[in-house]
Amino acid sequence: MEMNHFLKNYTSYVAGSKTRWLTLIVWMVLIGLVSVIWPAVNEHETNTSNLLPEDAMSVVADQIIEEQFSDDVGIPLLLVWYQESGLTEENFQLIQSLYMDLEVNPLQEQSMVPPFGQLPIDVLRNAASEDEKAITTPVFFNRDASVDELKEALSVLEEKVGSLTGTELLHIDLAEEGLHLRFSGPVGISIDATELFSQADFTLLIATVLLVLILLILLYRSPILAIVPLIGVGFAFGIISPLLGFLAREGWIVVDAQAISIMTVLLFGAGTDYCLFLISRYRDELQLEENKYKALQLALANSGGAIMMSGLTTMIGLLSLGLANYASYDRFAVPFSLAILVMAIAVVTLLPSLLALIGRVAFFPFIPRTERMIVELEKKKGKPVRKPKMRSAFSKMTGRLVTEKPWRIIIVTMILLVSLAAVVPRIEYSYGLLDSFPEDMPSREGFSIIAEHYPAGEIAPIQVLVDTKGNEVDLQDTLLALEAVENVSEPVLGEKNKEIQKYEVKVQMDPYSSQAIEEIPLIKQVVEDALNGAGVNRASENVWIGGETAELYDTKVITNADQNRIIPVILIIMAILLVIYLRSVVAMAYLLFTVVLSFFSALGLGWLIIHYGLGAPAMQGLIPLYTFVFLVALGGDYNIFMISSIWKKSKTMPYKKAIATGVEGTSSVISSAGLILAGTFAVLAVMPIQVLVQFGIVTAVGILMDTFIVRPLLVPAITTVLGKYAFWPGVLWKKEKKDSKSKEYS
Description:
alpha+beta; 746 residues; elongated
């Protein structure tokens, strides 16, 4: 009651007849100030793909290699030349001419090129693949070169190739005859990744706005009302973008294009949901109260607490990603939680002022009126006026079903959800960066050519580094004895520390495959055993494995550790907040159970769609934690909104009726909100990056199951079966009504 009283008074300050304009002006002035003072967030996005922590084994190995074995040639761009009918002498002459030109007229930020311009054609031919269909030639650039500088250099390089050949080798489809060229390697991948996000961001924004607008019009059949939530989201983004830009500029956070893309989707989806929670309640109150300001006060008093608690749980849940060691998770924490915080503030400040300004007209042409207003309008028009329905037939049927046949609902829904969850152990995961990009991306096509025409292990050799501590150690035969190893190089001694040895290990399988990744701990263990046998103390501290296969292994280990740490933290946070808000240990327990079950079911159904529907061989390894955080945090919103409605109604009416009425009153808005939220995440399918496509699919199907199965059916059915114990130990009904309600369970 105290909270309701506070919210009623609060509404008069932000959305009263005299203050509504002031609230809007304050928001506009604030946006103008921060936009002028602080930069937009996209001005400070990082393009680095270094996502592992500094103490990861492969990162330490790379640092040792740079210190002890560095040739300071820079970062490579790989020029992958390919011709299905075989490379000709003319092709090798073209390569010679290009590299002679690069020596005389170097590219911007070019650090070094191999002397291919002076090498005889026979030597070049020997460097080609065994089938002589492909050859890879590098160009090296300064390590501190920016993406824009590299992009400009590659543009000039493409022009040089075009002037030598008279054709656009980089854009000819690989299925066509003739010579082909693709830019790959670290530089090519970095440029392609930047291009993908820069092109997709605008597409994603437009697609999201249009989808939300269309869904709002279809669901509420009001063009004005459809625009109001988008205005709220737009105002919120006007604060969020420069605020994140300021934090990134000061170096307090790191943001990348992927995080900002998903944040935009989250802002439109969750932000529109919060707006709908208030708007739906406002519409109900307008059918009972003539004064729009009083109706707005009642709407905010009855929904404001749930909105603020929903925002708090979502914000804290997303902020827990900051506990991750893997940068792709960590970079999500502040942008996502800040977006939810600002949006929640906008919903309880800006949105009420907008609704107060527009009034009932916001719902045109289906304007909600009280009974007396309808009678007066009918007299004025001289004909009956259509009365909007307080509750849909579907809502009433759902409310009746969960209270009359709860066990049947529980059994059916549990069979469905558990069956889908049972698929999860069969999911295959991938941790490769290129696996997330489209197959026709130039750098990925170049990599595919290398993989098809060169021995598997040569694509990405594994670097084994050991500190012998002065002992006699030779690991070549030890490593060659491993079944998966194809070849091991002679040991190379460190430039500054001769006790450090480096071996290049080439495996027999694809070095990016899960089988190769699983070989990393075996290789490390074998090397440690050999060092122990040679008398090296603390051998485990003197072995490092680098290379791309080791990076994938570290990614798998670290992301799994992040999941094992963050998931329990989120569940504990959710449990604490639910207990505080609902004052019920039992309700907290079964609500968390349904959320976790919903997550596993979504992951299982998502895999069936991704693997069997879209033909993807594996799911990106980042997806489980991504989707868990979003589904638990956002699913908690619907839990809180519906259960809080039942909680309030159970104080004034019989228990089963409170459940039925609570379901009736919230199912419509939750269904609408769920459709919009699922739709916004589904929009990620327009992105060309597989990790975002898969994340969007799993999250969207999870939200839909949560919206139409878990929240309206399973949760209230469990609440019905548990009876008054569902809210133990909280007292949710008045003492004088206790006897009458007890009869329902006798």
